[in-house]
Backbone:
């Protein structure tokens, strides 16, 4: 990935070239100036979420400076974290995301291993097909999928619509193609000699996968896991279509549909909920930024 | 960027001939093992992606109660409705202008990040990528609150500059601007991170040579940076075009298509018609209009992918 070992910029050289080094100093100052502007633009909404979440309802509707909290209070957090409904959303989201990550890994790791190392009829076409699948958006599939699962309910009597676990079938369509695709890339970068040596030593294909490929491609595995988790956590369209009862909702849909009652917006609680909903991806990002970026840049640029 | 060999290429690369009998035996049965290993993937794609895609075409030919075949009746109906053409227009305005601004801002910011000393880059990159990390449904709620008509933080700030209250989501033109603004805010960091990775792969010698030849900054960008980044710019833009065309979250939460259906794009209108209006065939027909643009983009991406596969 993008390594940053070489210092490519900045007036670090000792030899002065007169106007050139002055140019560079100015370029640097302008860079910082514009970067500050862009950083403010990027961070205003999350900052405003935080500010609002600390305000009481009286302060929100008061005509004071909206960019600052004058009487900070945790009442919004207390209200949400003691509400069974909100905890239920959080629990549903966590369950769905974690199980989807496991399903995704169980499907995509063996598939990526087979597609990158074992040639069989149609494997090259399948690898391209996986990438194409990744390009099919959720907004194209939600209507036929909804109708399909409704029909399954009608025909077999197994009611899946309006159950949170229906999402366990749906979300892998978003996560598996991409994870398989980046795992193919990571597996392909492992030297062939490594698995050939393992096979000569008598390892089975399964052992080659678990003892050689998974440990060596661990960074890719982490990147894929992060991707699968954040996509499942953030998904909004499918749960909005498939679940309607309050106890089956996941966090993003729950906040939008239950905290907004008609025209009444309880902004303090909405912002608190949004912040709590944004927290898991943000925490993962804060600790595993390099893996996150590795997965991001792997996606659209290479296999 | 080329540190990992290309997946598809690795698949088709001929395996070295081996003489050991144990290895040969393992290779002989490996194709069946490999097929079993990919079977869950094949089933998933076939049952939950390919089948629904074709089922959607079938649905689009049924009438509202889904009992009668009406052929292209749904499409005829759509072509006669003004709202449909509004949605087509708005989808194109939304996707093209949003992608354009995302690409432009991403390009500029990537240059600024690339310009500063390497030890500070990580910190800035970390801050600038935050919009991409927050689930869009959650961050759009924050934007909705920033745009709020009565307690809007933006209008409060603008009032100090003598700019009157702006109906951010209430007026058609402003609502269109707002959804694009939020989409640019959300998507620009993705471009920034891609372009930054591409910038780092451009050899320094090229810039030094250009500087010695007396190229100014504009010529350095035009003759060195852009040609070197051409591939990544193309693929990122196409990729983002697909995602932006198919966008749902931002428009749904910010305006829900209003005012007067002026900000509906294909996905939100398909949801309104198909799920909320329970006219599933019509909704399926609406969402099928995303297919042409997807197909064109997919062909270009695929061409680029296979080209680079051959190069590596």
Residues:
């Amino acid at each position: 990935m993008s390594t940053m070992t070489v210092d490519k910029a900045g007036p670090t050289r000792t030899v002065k070239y007169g106007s050139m080094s002055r140019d560079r100093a100015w370029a640097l100052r302008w860079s910082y100036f514009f970067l500050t502007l862009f950083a403010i633009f990027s961070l205003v909404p999350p900052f405003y979420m935080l500010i609002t979440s600390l305000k009481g309802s009286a302060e929100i509707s008061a005509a004071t400076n909206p960019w600052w909290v004058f009487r900070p209070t945790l009442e919004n957090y207390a209200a949400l974290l003691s509400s069974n409904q909100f905890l239920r959303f959080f629990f549903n989201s966590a369950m769905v995301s974690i199980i989807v990550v496991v399903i995704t890994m169980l499907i995509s790791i063996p598939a990526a291993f087979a597609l990158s190392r074992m040639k069989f009829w149609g494997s090259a076409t399948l690898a391209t097909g996986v990438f194409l699948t990744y390009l099919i958006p959720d907004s194209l599939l939600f209507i036929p999928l909804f109708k399909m699962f409704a029909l399954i309910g009608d025909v077999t009597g197994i009611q899946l619509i309006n159950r949170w676990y229906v999402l366990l079938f749906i979300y892998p369509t978003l996560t598996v193609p991409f994870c398989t695709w980046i795992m193919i890339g990571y597996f392909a970068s492992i030297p062939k000699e490594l698995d050939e040596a393992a096979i000569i030593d008598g390892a089975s294909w399964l052992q080659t996968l678990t003892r050689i490929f998974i440990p060596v491609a661990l960074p890719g595995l982490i990147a894929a896991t992060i991707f699968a988790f954040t996509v499942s956590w953030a998904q909004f369209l499918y749960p909005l279509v498939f679940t309607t009862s309050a106890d089956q909702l996941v966090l993003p849909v729950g906040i939008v549909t239950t905290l907004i009652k008609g025209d009444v917006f309880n902004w303090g609680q909405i912002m608190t909920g949004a912040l709590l909903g944004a927290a898991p991806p943000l925490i993962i990002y804060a600790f595993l930024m390099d893996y996150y970026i590795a997965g991001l840049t792997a996606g659209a640029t290479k296999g | 960027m080329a540190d990992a060999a290309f997946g598809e290429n690795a698949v088709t690369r001929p395996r070295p001939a081996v003489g050991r009998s144990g290895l040969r035996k393992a290779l002989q049965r490996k194709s069946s093992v490999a097929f079993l290993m990919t079977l869950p993937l094949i089933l998933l794609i076939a049952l939950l992606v390919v089948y629904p895609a074709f089922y959607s075409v079938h649905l689009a030919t049924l009438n509202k109660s889904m009992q009668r075949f009406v052929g292209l009746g749904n499409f005829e109906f759509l072509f006669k409705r003004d709202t449909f053409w509004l949605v087509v227009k708005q989808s194109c305005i939304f996707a093209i202008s949003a992608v354009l601004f995302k690409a432009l801002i991403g390009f500029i910011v990537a240059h600024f990040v690339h310009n500063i000393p390497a030890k500070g880059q990580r910190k800035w990159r970390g801050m600038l990528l935050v919009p991409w990390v927050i689930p869009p449904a959650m961050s759009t709620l924050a934007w909705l609150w920033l745009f709020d008509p009565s307690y809007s933080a933006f209008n409060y700030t603008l009032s100090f500059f003598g700019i009157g209250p702006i109906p951010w989501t209430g007026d058609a033109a402003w609502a269109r601007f707002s959804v694009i603004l939020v989409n640019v805010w959300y998507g620009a960091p993705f471009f920034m991170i891609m372009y930054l990775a591409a910038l780092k792969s451009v050899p320094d010698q090229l810039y030094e040579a250009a500087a010695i030849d007396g190229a100014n900054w504009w010529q350095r960008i035009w003759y060195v940076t852009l040609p070197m980044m051409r591939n990544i710019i193309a693929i990122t833009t196409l990729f983002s075009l697909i995602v932006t065309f198919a966008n749902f979250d931002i428009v749904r939460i910010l305006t829900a298509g209003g005012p007067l259906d002026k900000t509906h794009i294909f996905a939100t209108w398909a949801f309104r018609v198909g799920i909320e209006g329970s006219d599933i065939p019509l909704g399926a027909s609406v969402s099928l209009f995303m297919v042409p643009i997807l197909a064109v983009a997919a062909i270009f991406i695929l061409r680029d992918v296979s080209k680079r596969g051959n190069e590596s």
